[in-house]
Amino acid sequence: MEQRYSIVTLGTVDLARARKFYEECLGWRPFMTEGMTAYDMGGIAFGLFAHDALADDADLPHSPVTEGSYHGFAIAYNARSEQEVDEILAHIADKGTTYGAKVLKEAHKAFWGGYSAYFADPDGHAWEVAYNPYWPVSDDGKLGLPEPEAG
């Protein structure tokens, strides 16, 4: 299997509410809305799918969604500056609460040398917003990663 992924799909208990957050609050535009909602993330797709239907699709048991619970992962958005991190977090604090989103952790200097914050989308999925001076973001949104270690 190649070292890559093509789509990240989040289960949501209220697809209409989740779409409003991502589209109205964050300004994203879907390219597909039948069955699931999908957004182009620069060559990778981000999807929203009904929580129980996603479990059914994977032959997994339905699990309750508890507000504020940890989902076992976080999605990260790398910003181009500390100021951009602050602007995004302020936007979530100001507008995101209308859609059920909330700030989880205020922006701060991180132990690894960057600047980081967290917010939760309407279903409680954690999003990190971080500025990492070691992994710059190009004008076209691509992350500048170091060369893999030999071995």
Q: How does this model look, in words?
A:
This protein is an alpha/beta fold. The protein has two domains: 1-61, 2,3-Dihydroxybiphenyl 1,2-Dioxygenase, domain 1, CATH 3.10.180.10; 73-139, 2,3-Dihydroxybiphenyl 1,2-Dioxygenase, domain 1 (Roll). The chain contains three helices and eight strands; from the N terminus they run βαβββαβαβββ. The strands form two sheets. The chain has a four-stranded mixed β-sheet with strand order 1-4-3-2. The mean pLDDT is 92.
Can you describe this structure in just a few lines?
By secondary structure, the protein is of the alpha/beta class.
Quick tags:
single chain, 151 residues, 2,3-Dihydroxybiphenyl 1,2-Dioxygenase, domain 1, globular
Write the layout of secondary structure elements.
Elements: E1 7-12, H1 15-25, E2 30-32, E3 37-40, E4 45-50, H2 51-57, E5 74-79, H3 82-95, E6 102-109, E7 115-120, E8 126-131
Parallel strand pairs: 1-4, 5-8
Antiparallel strand pairs: 2-3, 3-4, 6-7, 7-8
Relative strand content = 25-35%
- Classification by helices and strands: alpha/beta
- Write the CATH fold name of the largest domain: 2,3-Dihydroxybiphenyl 1,2-Dioxygenase, domain 1
Domain unit count? 2
Q: Tally the helices.
A: 3
Strand order of the largest sheet: 1-4-3-2
The count of strands amounts to 8
| General form | globular
Largest sheet: 4 strands, mixed
Q: Report the mean per-residue pLDDT as an integer.
A: 92
